[in-house]
Amino acid sequence: MNQANQAVPASRAPEAILLVGGKGTRLRPLTVRTPKPMVPAAGVPFLTHQLARARAAGVEHIVLATSYLAEVFEPYFGDGSALGLHLEYVTEEEPLGTGGAIRNAAARLRSGPDDPVLVFNGDILTGLDIPALVDTHRTAGADVSLHLTRVDDPRAYGLVPTDGTGRVTAFLEKPQTPEEIVTDQINAGAYVFRRSVIDGIPDGRPVSVERETFPELLAAGAHLQGMVDSTYWLDLGTPHAFVRGSADLVLGRAPSPAVPGRRGERLVLPSARIAPGAKLYGGTVVGEGARIGADARIDGSTVLPGAVVEPGAVVSESLIGRGARIGARTVLSGVVVGDGAVVGEDNELRHGARVWCDAVLPAGAVRFSSDQ
Predict the structure, then answer these.
(1) What gap in Å lies between CA 341 and CA 321, rounded to an integer?
(2) Terminus of the chain with fewer CB atoms < 10 Å: N or C?
(3) Is the pLDDT of residue 16 over 50?
(4) Per the confidence metrics, is the pTM higher than 0.85?
(5) Lowest mean pLDDT across 143-157, 218-232, 284-298
(6) Alpha-carbon gap, residue 234 to 244, rounded angstroms
(7) Its family (predicted)?
């Protein structure tokens, strides 16, 4: 979405809570040493894109709800002034779920009881019109407003049907049969809460807003409003999705003011070295200090800082961790290689294979036959 469409409504922009405490289990080995929101996407930690879009929408104060590897965030972002933000950090000693994390962060909010508070999940890449969601919330007089998006196959998501005015009528968790699929609208992971609703979430215990808070509010007669915004939306919870999201940022399909360079087929960060004959395309990112050998071909992939791809290697839709090495003529397709790992020359890995951090795969250890 164009930033021109992010004009702030006349009333004061709300503050926000950003949920960045998840362990990112599905993204391992990427998240063994790095929390999911800090894994680089299009050259910067993914969280940078979320913060920059919130700031472009007029948000100035954001509370980061941290837990897993919480000590990583503040040294990188500090007080947020480099992004024009005021950032604060709240850490969960024990995982509290989405609702518990929101409640735990509320102590750092400055909003009054009826003021709107934005809440974002830390693993969603989206073109959501943030001011429009806030405006919808205010106009409807809602207790909670939800960003909804439409998907072709909603079976992996929670469905959120609405009436003709956009008011939420039910929450249906992961339907499987055709009779259960009553809408293609799903919870897209961005909300506006009335501050007093946040204060009503139980304190000090795990709470899921999706399974507990929202259904209970609905049963109690609260006003939950849905806003369908079907611009770009991607849950970055899997390695394949994360790599795709990074490529889409580079290609300009996904919006962000934080991409450190011009959008196009490739993004090469300073101090990276690309040998003659190497071809980079499809939104490929090459991080600082990384080296790409002669005649290597890299399509829609992310090569993190300090990694080496040796001559003649072919890498597609894959992520190469920090300091990892990919041997000459090795072929990777849909693969994640952890930080510091070595994949020797003349290997071929495909179909979601993962190489753990610091693992060493000898030359020629894995090959696929031509009919696979």
Answers:
(1) 8
(2) C
(3) yes
(4) yes
(5) 143-157
(6) 9
(7) Belongs to the transferase hexapeptide repeat family.
pLDDT for residue 11 is more than 80: no
- Which one-letter DSSP state was computed for residue 329? T
CA gap 321, 338 in Å, rounded: 5
Does the pLDDT at position 364 exceed 90?
no
Active site residue 279: no
Strand spans (E) along 269-338: 273-274, 279-281, 284-286, 291-292, 297-299, 302-303, 308-309, 314-316, 319-320, 325-326, 331-333, 336-337
Q: What span, in angstroms and rounded, lies between the C-alpha atoms of 290 and 337?
A: 14
pLDDT of 30: 85
Quote the radius of gyration of the chain (alpha carbons, Å): 22
Determine the 3-state secondary structure of 228 from DSSP: strand
Q: Give dist(CA 274, CA 179) in Å, integer.
A: 54
Angle at 82 between CA 80 and CA 83, to 5 degrees: 70
Q: What DSSP line would sit under 61-96, residue for residue?
A: EEEEEE-TTGGGHHHHHTTSGGGT-EEEEEE-SS--
Residue 179 vs residues 162, 172, 175, 182: alpha-carbon distances, Å: 17, 12, 9, 7
Compute the average pLDDT of residues 203-221.
92
Token pair recorded at residue 310: 């040796």
- State both tokens at 3: 């930033």
Among 23, 36, 174, 279, the active-site one is 174
Tokens linked to 348: 């071929």
